[in-house]
From TrEMBL:
This is HTH_Tnp_Tc3_2 domain-containing protein. It comes from the Eukaryota. Coiled coil: none annotated. GO terms for molecular function: nucleic acid binding. InterPro entries: RNaseH_sf (IPR036397), Transposase_5 (IPR052338).
Amino acid sequence: MPSTICARLVSVHYDDILLEIERCYKSNSSATSQDVANRLRTRGIVVSTSHIRRLRHRLGFEKTTTKYCHTIRDSNKLARLDFCSEMLAAGMAFSDCVFTDECTVQIDCSTKYCFVKRGDQYSRMRSRAKHPAKVHIWGGISVRGTTQFAILPGSSRIDSELYCRILERCYLPFKSGVYNVFCFISCLRKRGVRNLDDLKVAIAQYWKTLTPEVCTRYIRGIKKRMERVVEQEGRNIIEGR
């Protein structure tokens, strides 16, 4: 197709092309310029991929890395939206709540890049354990500070019986006020974690930095996150500030 005819078609369908680009990236942010061109072609609009890229940039779309997150079912999206809407309407401050969670931390080498001289095939090699050392961690925070935290071996299976023991040792003393929360200490110099003992020490040091003031700041940030959930209609949100 001659370039003059192609330019005329783009000019005639300019608004439709922009709308299709917006619609395409709203439904799938990983779409390519060829995907957009194919969608336009089904409507009888032929546009080059280079022109689509220029219009895409003009609309404000920028290339960035993909961030993966957990899948949320539609029913759970609605539940998230309802809960956050109710809490925001009630002005909930969560000042009398304890937030608990568990996670798994493992020692592993995950560097993505390295610098080697030309011809050196060995400096880029990194040892990686077949079964990296890991631990399970459980802990909670509130405006009063932190609960005691539990560190469990990576081979542990956290069933109902074990979870009840964690609550009895770490949560109930905090709830009753018997447990004295960790006092504030200045942030310690970052340490290189090389083995399981170093990992446990690093976790304990980090936990001590979670003062009541820090915990309160985290909890106050929940309001902003709930607002984002409402904006996204229950979908995933960016957890940063």
